[in-house]
Amino acid sequence: MSSSQPNLTKLIALDLLTVGRLPLLLMMTIFVSAMVIVFTTHHTRQSITEKNIALQQRDHLDNEWRNLILEETALSEHSRVQDLASKELTMKRPDADKEVVIELK
């Protein structure tokens, strides 16, 4: 009895390779396009995440830069420099009669 029954696997494979070429080709095309969509979506999400991280780092560095500019301005203020010169280095402004002006030619 088993010899009279056709092998179902052979029949399906033969049918796909002869009559069902177009549906097989369409199925493979759909599968490939679905995989491309998945890969593209994953890559896009990774890129968006990297962009957001870079923007956060830029904002952090921008804030730090602004703080450093404020600190530089505060430390280089004329009254502060004059106060440090008189207290720490015991410097004082010379009298007007002791000033010497040198002219460059």
Characterise this structure:
This protein has one domain (8-90). Helix content is 73%, strand content 0%. The protein has helices at residues 8-18, 21-75, 78-88. The longest helix has 55 residues, at 21-75. The chain is rod-shaped and about 130 Å long. The N and C termini lie far apart (123 Å). The relative contact order is 0.03. The model has no long low-confidence stretch (mean pLDDT 89).
Q: How are the SSEs placed, and which strands pair?
A:
Blueprint (H helix, E strand, L loop, with lengths): L7 H11 L2 H55 L2 H11 L17
Helix content: over 70%
Count of discrete structural domains: 1
The profile of the biggest β sheet is:
none
Structural class from helices and strands? mainly alpha
Distance between the termini: 123 Å
- Our estimate of the beta-strand percent is under 5%
Mean pLDDT: 89
Alpha carbon gyration radius: 41 Å
Task: Sum up the structure in keywords.
mainly alpha, 73% helix, rod-shaped
Give a brief description.
This protein has 105 residues and is mainly alpha-helical.
